[in-house]
Specification:
Strand content: under 5%
Distance between the termini: 22 Å
Oligomer: single chain
Mean pLDDT: 92
Radius of gyration: 16 Å
Structural class: mainly alpha
Helix content: over 70%
């Protein structure tokens, strides 16, 4: 990811603005975990940045495939535009729901190419931590928000589906690009 791209922590922080208290608190707990619970070495963004450096990836925007840019733009638009707040809650929720399997697969791939446990830490951590995050997100954010106003479910589902579709396009492109 580019230094200019919003990370999950930033998206959660922007999404929680003006949410009802119970959901806001769940997003705050999630944010606190993303921030390493105040331990700089535990911050998730820098952990991912270390892996980018280890793999010597070129993250300049001009070298980023459009599918990845579209995903980042959609997530940023949801989180920064209040009329799409419920879309953002759904999109972030589906990230938490799908992250454990995705992260475990990436961690296994990184192990196959010889990276140490410390170097794989970002993905190993998310393979486990996001199971609880997803359960908590569903119980403390999604369900109460929909119970308070069932119309929110449509926007949340749309956000989740858009995130899933953007993610699928990214993975299709990555496969195409990496297997050429």
């Amino acid at each position: 990811s580019s230094d200019l791209e919003a990370g999950f922590d930033d998206l959660v922080a922007m999404t929680q603005v003006k949410l009802p208290n119970r959901a806001k608190m769940e997003l705050a707990r999630n944010y606190w975990d993303e921030m390493g619970r105040s331990n700089i070495k535990g911050m998730h963004g820098p952990m991912l940045g270390q892996l980018v450096a280890i793999l010597d990836l070129d993250t300049r925007i001009e070298n980023t495939v459009w599918e990845s840019l579209a995903l980042a733009n959609a997530m940023t638009a949801f989180a920064t535009t209040r009329r799409y707040a419920w879309h953002s809650v759904g999109a972030l929720g589906v990230i938490e729901l799908t992250a454990p399997g995705r992260s475990a697969a990436v961690a296994k791939g990184l192990q196959r190419i010889g990276l140490s446990e410390k170097e794989r830490r970002y993905f190993s951590l998310h393979a486990v931590l996001d199971v609880k995050h997803s359960e908590d997100w569903n119980r403390e954010a999604l369900r109460p928000l929909v119970a308070e106003d069932p119309a929110r479910a449509v926007a949340m589902a749309e956000g989740a589906l858009m995130r899933l579709r953007c993610g699928a396009r990214c993975f299709d492109r990555y496969r195409l690009t990496l297997w050429e």
